[in-house]
Amino acid sequence: MVFSTLDVRFAARALAAGGVIAHPTESVWGLACDPFNRDAVERLLQLKNRPLAKGLILVSGDEVDFSDLLDNLTLEQRQKLADSWPGPVTWLVPHFGRVPPWVSGDHHSVALRCTDHPFTAALARAFGGAIVSTSANPAGCQPARAKYQVLRYFGDALDFVGGGTTGGRRSPSEIRDLVTGKIMRPG
């Protein structure tokens, strides 16, 4: 997968400045922002017309970025994560109040994914930690699978759009509940 390291730097700077960007993921394009910047998250939610209550996914290329959220897990739970990461599996993990409510929504868990998409992993590294990443589409519309679709949905409302192409998977990441084992969204 080819992408520009310059794109990584521009995207990371936009995130650090409170921007909302679009980037490719394993299967679709995503919208991303700094999870600890409430204004950025609210802007992202407004662009998507997504309610705060639903919660958002945190994505990184390195499990270390989630270490404070994984402290209270059992060895068996940590092994489940290790068996599926990096890759297109998102886990709902209890957050014990360690993430802002504008990320977790109305939930006692937070959605975490350790991605194997090269650009998204490089972006999180350059940013210095996990980022919010949610599908690049307004609520009720199909997720964007190409850059032109992102631009059609959002025009110039984003601070950066780039990073190569998606990983080519046809289905979105699977979402599993770590505590119950239930598959919330098949992948």
Automatic annotation (TrEMBL):
UniProt GO cellular component terms: cytoplasm
Pfam families xrefs: Sua5_yciO_yrdC
GO molecular function, one term: ATP binding
Record key words, sorted: ATP-binding, Cytoplasm, Nucleotide-binding, Nucleotidyltransferase, Transferase, tRNA processing
BP GO terms, sorted: regulation of translational fidelity; tRNA threonylcarbamoyladenosine modification
Enzyme nomenclature, EC number: 2.7.7.87
Catalytically driven reaction(s): L-threonine + hydrogencarbonate + ATP = L-threonylcarbamoyladenylate + diphosphate + H2O
Keyword Aminoacyl-tRNA synthetase attributed: no
Domain of life: Bacteria
UniProt cross-references to PROSITE patterns, sorted A to Z: YRDC
Localization, UniProt: Cytoplasm
YrdC-like domain span: 5-187
Described purpose of this protein according to its UniProt entry: Required for the formation of a threonylcarbamoyl group on adenosine at position 37 (t(6)A37) in tRNAs that read codons beginning with adenine. Catalyzes the conversion of L-threonine, HCO(3)(-)/CO(2) and ATP to give threonylcarbamoyl-AMP (TC-AMP) as the acyladenylate intermediate, with the release of diphosphate.
Family designation: Belongs to the SUA5 family. TsaC subfamily.
Protein name: Threonylcarbamoyl-AMP synthase
Organism annotation: Microbulbifer aggregans
